[in-house]
Design goal:
This protein is an alpha/beta fold. The chain contains 10 helices and 9 strands. It has helices at residues 28-40, 55-62, 83-97, 115-127, 141-151, 174-181, 202-214, 218-226, 241-248, 257-266; strands at residues 3-5, 12-14, 45-47, 71-76, 104-107, 134-137, 156-162, 184-188, 232-234. Helix 1 (28-40) runs parallel beside helix 9 (241-248) and helix 3 (83-97) crosses helix 4 (115-127). The chain is globular and about 50 Å long. The model has no long low-confidence stretch (mean pLDDT 97).
């Protein structure tokens, strides 16, 4: 499993991880098996959140005997992101996850509480050893600038954003900002939340042709494209063990310049939007 340095943490993290949004909508036993199958083939970066229903409990079950192998990430909702609220929310997540610390803890999206309070809470948790690093999710450049001004350099570990073949808006400004400041960029919903390119479409045929050439799946081709740039990671979700194993294969898939150009041509990034897209 190919890994790279995860932003300011300097920890080597697999470029293909595992998301858990809506994983509690699958059969629980299958969900646990899927996460374990992913871990067994090297997808040890696992992302969850307090607002994801029973996802943290499912992650706890899947990682019960392999916690030390996992880079574990969870998120606090903005409504809980006061200085004291961040601490309480994190402690609740730790109880649900049955662990004593998170490798990274994120603010799920910008909210109404002052960012200085949220960051102070993150730093309280970091000093207490309950989190090893903190980051952000769904933050555009203006918000990132504000956090950088408050926290200073080498504090923001990552920014988690919507990123799939038909939604490449972050390439305009957010990704360059992250590259400039040494912040990992983690793309969520890499398969477009159920809207993966139809195999009969022009883009779908391109993905299928590349997949056949490499003996893999169109989904793995998409993941390889989305992690082609330095500092990028992605966290596909699946409740099926076989799909988890297929996803992991993307980490070792090397797309050539002509293949990258074909994907880029059929899934252009388009103009920069006025607001950062998010789910």
């Amino acid at each position: 499993m190919y890994a790279r340095s995860f932003g300011s943490t300097r920890v080597s993290v697999p470029v293909i991880g595992q998301g858990t949004w809506h994983i509690d909508g699958s059969d629980r036993a299958d969900a646990v098996r899927a996460l374990r199958a992913g871990i067994d083939v090297g997808m040890t970066h696992i992302d969850t959140a307090e607002m994801y229903g029973d996802a943290e409990a499912i992650v706890a079950e899947a990682t019960a005997d392999c916690r030390e192998e996992v880079f574990l990430v969870s998120k606090v909702v903005p409504g809980n992101a006061t200085r004291r609220g961040v601490v309480r929310a994190c402690e609740a997540s730790l109880r649900r996850l049955k662990t004593d610390r998170l490798d990274c803890y994120l603010l799920h999206w910008p909210g109404q509480h002052p960012l200085a309070e949220t960051i102070a809470g993150f730093e309280d948790l970091r000093r207490a050893g309950k989190i090893l690093a903190w980051g952000l999710s769904n933050f555009d450049v203006d918000d990132l600038d504000q956090v950088l001004a408050i926290a200073g350099p080498d504090r923001i570990a990552c920014n988690q954003v919507l990123y799939h073949l038909n939604e490449r808006a972050i390439e305009h400004a957010v990704l360059p900002w992250c590259e400039k400041h040494g912040v990992a960029m983690v793309g969520y919903s890499p398969f477009g939340s159920g809207e993966f390119p139809d195999p009969a479409s022009a883009g779908g045929r391109v993905l299928d042709g590349i997949a056949r050439a490499h003996g893999t799946t169109p989904y793995a081709v998409a993941l390889a494209f989305l992690t082609r740039l330095p500092g990028t990671f992605t966290i596909p979700k699946t409740g099926r063990p076989a799909r988890a194993i297929e996803n992991a294969a993307a980490a070792d898939l090397h797309l050539g310049p002509a293949e990258l150009a074909m994907i880029d041509a059929h899934f252009p990034r388009g103009p920069r939007p006025r607001m950062l897209p998010m789910l």
